[in-house]
Structures are given as structure tokens and as C-alpha cells.
Fold this sequence. Notes:
By secondary structure, this protein is α+β, with helices and mostly antiparallel strands.
Amino acid sequence: MAPPPPSGMGCVCMAPTSSGKDESMRDRTQNICQQQGAFLRGTLDFYGRGNFYCNFVNGIDPAKWDQSCRTIYGDGTYGFCNAAN
């Protein structure tokens, strides 16, 4: 089934890297996205966080996404959400 057009909320899992800069983690985002029944989308720029995001057409509580990133991955991973683009 093809995903619907982007709308609602988009989220990524972020984590610190050896460079000292936090970066979005595609594998972590994709894993949780699939668990939540949402769609992983590509984009030119998701609020300076990367070129992909998990799209929740009906939205998601950003705290729930953040908790999923932190609980499943630990090691400084956290969630970031904003409007889908």
C-alpha cells in the first residue's frame, strides 16, 4: 500500500556522534516508525535534522516518540518531532 501524502506530525530519533554533534539516526527512526505503524519518508530537509522522518498522519504525542527512542536505544538517543513536510 502506498503511503498517503505528507501531513500531520514527523519525528526522528537523534543521537550524539563522535564528532560531538547530534544527528538523526535513520535505522533507529525506521525501526520505531514501523513499530508504530507509520511511514518513513524522504525529504530535502527535516528542520535541519536529516533527509528523512517518520510520518504520523494523525499525529503522535512527541513525548511518546521521545520515550520510545530513549527506552529502546538508550545511549543518549532522544526524539524530535515537528510538522510533516
